Amino acid sequence: MTRVTFLHPDLGIGGAERLVVDAALALKKYGHDVNFVTTHHDPEHCFLETKDGTIPVTVVGNWLPRHILGRFYAFCAYIRMIYAASYIIFSDHRPEVVFCDLVSICIFVLRLRIPYVVFYCHYPDQLLSYPGGYFKQLYRMPLNYLEEITTGMAHKIFVNSCFTSNVFKNIFKRLKIKPEILYPSINTDFFDKTRIVSIERVIDRKLPDDSIILLSINRYERKKKLSIAIEALAELKKLLTKEVYKRVFLIMAGGYDKRIEENVEYHLELIGLADELHVTDKVIFLRSPSDIDKVSIIHHCKIVIYTPPNEHFGIVPLEAMYMGKPVIAHNSGGPTESIISGKTGFLVDLSGEAFATKIAYLITNSNHLEDFGRSGQCRFSETFSFAAFSAQLNKAINDLIDTKTK
């Protein structure tokens, strides 16, 4: 049994957090001793497995600032992760392997006393930073350099897609490393065991029995382009008969953290957009739905809409395919690897009109909804199963340990 600690900066709700939680569950299933160390964990804004004790969570450094006067978020994240890494290397039960992600600066500290460090690159952090002026560029230069150097110090590097692998190669030019692709998966046991609740119980609103529910799941961030889903809903009025359109509703569900100003502002912007496009009565906003509620709304929906452009991978399309739902996504990034356009869903341009056209096609050709759903389930089983994800990750950990003992 190998002691494995997962080091993650903010263990909230999101695709990156879902991946590391699933990775921990996978290794635990193989008999490894796993736990989390994080700089922030809110029991009211987290995944169930980190709340109910399935995976022990230790919070350190939460007292350190997340920003300085609304700026220097990356610098503060680096300091917090260095502190957390220091806690790990001086702990009484020091792990043999640390699995870290998002922020690589912690790796140089971990290398001081941890035998093996695994880094999962969801996407280079420097590309996630909003562009700025001259002073912002000066501020980012040393951080970007440190990101590249410390990433290269990991014993094993994973990326989440071919798309991210190519970005990794183009951004980290100093590193002569070819990262291994480890496609994310989902904890299918949880999906299978979750009791489906009525849609009315989830959204606290009564819908007609013959409702056609469209579903968008993503964090309330502007880069996710959630406005496209609302624009598509408005465009559908031109493409469907009046009788059919009145049955269509859109659920906007996503991670929402009141500490994050953008989450609060964007949520209000989307409410305003729905009002402007006269679809307020057809849009239901859910903030940080529970895992159980998320499974239920996917079950009840007809089509999943996935709007982020250049998404590094995207876990939502996998969840939708596993539950037999067609996915309409932007034709870029990770979804081009998970979705087979015309078979499990559609890949379209980034416009409300483009999304609406394919939504209308599926609604008016209801037999395709089932065909696409079955194809999606087969696609998931063949390429993205939790068993394949778990086996690949377990092999990587065992290979590291075996290399040490030889």
UniProtKB/TrEMBL annotation:
Annotated Gene Ontology cellular component terms: endoplasmic reticulum membrane
GO MF annotation: an example: GDP-Man:Man(2)GlcNAc(2)-PP-Dol alpha-1,6-mannosyltransferase activity
Broad enzyme group: transferase
Main subcellular location of this protein, as a coarse class: endoplasmic reticulum
Domain Glycosyl transferase family positions: 206-376
InterPro entries: ALG2, Glyco_trans_1, Glyco_trans_4-like_N
Pathway info: Protein modification; protein glycosylation
Domain Glycosyltransferase subfamily 4-like N-terminal, chain residue ranges per copy: 13-189
Gene giving rise to this polypeptide: 105622020
Enzyme Commission number: 2.4.1.132, 2.4.1.257
Protein name in the entry: Alpha-1,3/1,6-mannosyltransferase ALG2
Bilayer disposition of the protein: Single-pass membrane protein
Free-text function comment from the UniProt entry: Mannosylates Man(2)GlcNAc(2)-dolichol diphosphate and Man(1)GlcNAc(2)-dolichol diphosphate to form Man(3)GlcNAc(2)-dolichol diphosphate.
Family the entry assigns: Belongs to the glycosyltransferase group 1 family.
Pfam families referenced in this protein's UniProt entry, alphabetically: Glyco_transf_4, Glycos_transf_1
Compartment(s) of residence: Endoplasmic reticulum membrane
UniProtKB keywords: Endoplasmic reticulum, Glycosyltransferase, Membrane, Transferase, Transmembrane, Transmembrane helix
TM segment ranges: none
Keyword Iron carried by entry: no
Catalytic reaction(s) noted: an alpha-D-Man-(1->3)-beta-D-Man-(1->4)-beta-D-GlcNAc-(1->4)-alpha-D-GlcNAc-diphospho-di-trans,poly-cis-dolichol + GDP-alpha-D-mannose = an alpha-D-Man-(1->3)-[alpha-D-Man-(1->6)]-beta-D-Man-(1->4)-beta-D-GlcNAc-(1->4)-alpha-D-GlcNAc-diphospho-di-trans,poly-cis-dolichol + GDP + H(+); a beta-D-Man-(1->4)-beta-D-GlcNAc-(1->4)-alpha-D-GlcNAc-diphospho-di-trans,poly-cis-dolichol + GDP-alpha-D-mannose = an alpha-D-Man-(1->3)-beta-D-Man-(1->4)-beta-D-GlcNAc-(1->4)-alpha-D-GlcNAc-diphospho-di-trans,poly-cis-dolichol + GDP + H(+)
UniProt xrefs under PANTHER family: ALPHA-1,3/1,6-MANNOSYLTRANSFERASE ALG2, ALPHA-1,3_1,6-MANNOSYLTRANSFERASE ALG2
